[in-house]
Amino acid sequence: MNTNTKYIFVTGGVLSGVGKGITAASIGAVLQAKGARVSIQKCDPYLNVDAGLLNPAEHGECFVTRDGAETDLDLGHYERFLDLELEQKNATLSGRLLLQLINDERAGCMHGKTVQLVPHLTEAIQRAIEVASEGSEFHIVEIGGTVGDYEGLSFVEAIREFAGRVGRTNCLFVHVVYVPYLHASHEYKTKPAQNALADLRGFGIMPDVVGVRTEGETAAPRSIGDKISMFTGVPREGIIMMPNVDTVYEVPLTVARDLGALLGTFSGIAREPDLAMWRRLAERDKTEYAREITVGLVAKYIDNTDTYLSIIEALKSAAWSQKCEVNIKWINAEKVSDADFADVDAVLVPGGFGARGVEGKIAAAEYAYRHKLPYLGICLGLQVAVIAAARRGGLRHAHSDEFVETKQNVIYIMPGQAGKESTGGTLRLGDYAATLAANSLAAKVYGASEVIERHRHRYEVNQAFREQIEQGGLTISGTSPDGALVEFIEATDHPYYIATQAHPEFRSRPMRAHPLFVGLAQAALARHS
Fold this sequence. Notes:
By secondary structure, this protein is of the alpha/beta class. The protein is built from 16 helices and 24 strands.
């Protein structure tokens, strides 16, 4: 038990997607601004072992940590807000815990006991929280889903028990609820929130803080918070109104303003938080710059932008660094035509799996090459650029083993390739190093000869076809330290045409834009000069 750590548990009511992740990250940001050491964790009730096989069209992007954990997108929020490098221990899914419990039972570790959700799963959850909190003064735990969901009951019981073990004064419970606005009667209705809070109390947890999420034509009146306080017993100073904001980077400022006194008492840190960075971020996100660029994002999941959340945030950060606006033009990879690129300043092809839309992505890489349009390829974006180059270099049937069977498999699985096991098979997951060629665009952009980036892929560039790829106008500008794996490619005669097998968007930060995205923004701006 980490006796010097205090814990903050963030739960949600009424419906999912109310902003628990942003709330949790914002509380952490305020504590960091007071000088505290903060850690954070997402507990998801899904029976999946990890997020590797979750449909991105439904759940948003699969975020990858430096040690190769495949997690949901909230860990991306955490990393961007708190500038932490998280790991597997920071993402806990019930499927992973249940799998371990069953394996332990089969191995005889339970010594004949009846394995039950309580106490065995709840104790496993508590152990996971303890492990993730090591070394921190304050550990924030977001419980996914909505209180009352059947699959989440063990997690709610676990944190109730946990508070009893570490002492209730060492725990802060935050419950985020949704208060709908009825346009017909022009009023906010608090009954769903009251019921959600009653559910939480029914499980033995009295929240210290209630975050009231609202939408509407105007901000909810103070009386809404007063009413929730009166009917739930939560003191008014523990009610924080959370209306829609122009930018999520305003939320830490709201938390500091409305919960500053409460967090000061709970933390025991009297020092006022230094929020200068958050004020700059909020102002920067709301600033309308005179210059603007349009980036064509060639994607197959265009109905749910959360699928490419880290890409979007990395583009925004890069644009801010260049004091310009970025407009994202969504281009359906299954219906790509040259006309789609007529009004864009740059093209970005993101990662992905499966054959759907791949020929459109190849066409996008080809168009950007032929028309000297700035291009950034990420993971699959590198592979389609290689396929396009190999076809230009004389391999008419060049393709990837992932999609078709061809002898001109310029993208393939290396025999005996080692990788980290994923639910979906063997992938290269997490941090891998790359050595960059001297005087290459990659080395210039990074300002370094060695880099480390996060990966999530199974297929590699087949260097047996290196000659044809180079004849098609590309050079291999970065490889694994032993030279076996291709990490970066770039065009030899182009203003900005670069791709990486990695996912650099995961390491971009709001105040520290990733150099590959900055380079893309600069090249796009240069087209206007």
